[in-house]
Amino acid sequence: MLTPTAELVVPRRGVGAFNVISVEHAEAIVTGAEAAGQPVILQISQNAVIFHHNRLAPIAAAAREVARASSVPVALHLDHVEDLALVEQAPEHGFGSVMYDGSKLDFAANVAATRKAVEFCHAHGLWLESELGEVGGKDGAHAPGVRTDPAEAVAFVRDTGVDALAVAVGSSHAMTSRDAALDLELIGRLREAVPVPLVLHGSSGVPDDELTAAVRAGMTKINIGTALNIAFTGAVRDYLDENRKAVDPRKYVAPGRDAMAATVEHFLRVLAA
User: How far apart are CA 188 and CA 130, in angstroms?
Assistant: First the structure.
């Protein structure tokens, strides 16, 4: 069932948000969510739109229909959007939320651009997430030791009117190992200071116990992408290694999709623990 993002992202409860690159990603994410009996967010990034020849409509339509057929609540989220023109396409394609990413801008410019995105989204009934400074691993910025300052976070939320805030607390995008150490004390201080749900980006690199602790400390929306691609690629590679003459993509994509579904189920059970 297609559900507004605002109904899933609520304080004191963790919800998994998984990156969609292909229709198989969307199918796997929903299959894993149904197996875990948990709600889930399908998120399509601007980079994924670029991959699909800069066309949002086809992949959004596929994700939307997969969500509608689900037996658990599924929200549709447009992620890491730097182009306001793409933000403006969100309502017509069934998205319940957008993450506007002005993190490459200085504070004042980020506030101004994010406020424009907020005004558009709120006028169209959409929920908006944003980010104060880059989370580690994005375009080489944000040194591993950098953390979100609670006072700046409060000012940013106040001045923009965002509905959720992605914060830097020790995770990093595109990690292929699960050894990130989160600053749980900082998460607690941010949770007390910031009046909107907190978002953890780069969660693929965070160990299970750290994710559980992060939710208990105050993180709400947990973004996961690389872990699905690791599972998918590993399963496809194993199949092709064992079946050197295989040419039908259904034969090797299916185990990749199954591996992603199992990964989603695992993460959702961790977040619900």
Answer: 19
The DSSP string of 197-225 is -EEE--GGGS-HHHHHHHHHHTEEEEEE-
Q: Scan for tokens 């953890």, then name that residue.
A: 200
CA distance 235 to 180: 24
User: Are 130 and 161 a contacting pair, CB within 8 Å?
Assistant: no
Tokens (6 digits) for 82: 């730097």
Burial class (CB in 10 A: 0-12, 13-18, 19+), 151: exposed
DSSP conformational letter for 134 = P
pLDDT in tens, 185-226: 999 999 999 999 999 988 887 889 999 999 999 999 999 999
Which residues belong to the active site?
79
Burial class (CB in 10 A: 0-12, 13-18, 19+), 104: middle
Q: 39 with 5: CB under 8 angstroms?
A: no
- Kindly indicate the confidence band of residue 174, based on its pLDDT and cuts at 50, 70 and 90: low
Dist CA 151 CA 37 (whole Å)? 37
How many Å apart are CA 180 and CA 210, to the nearest integer? Answer: 8
Quote the CA–CA distance of 273 and 269 in Å, as a whole number.
6
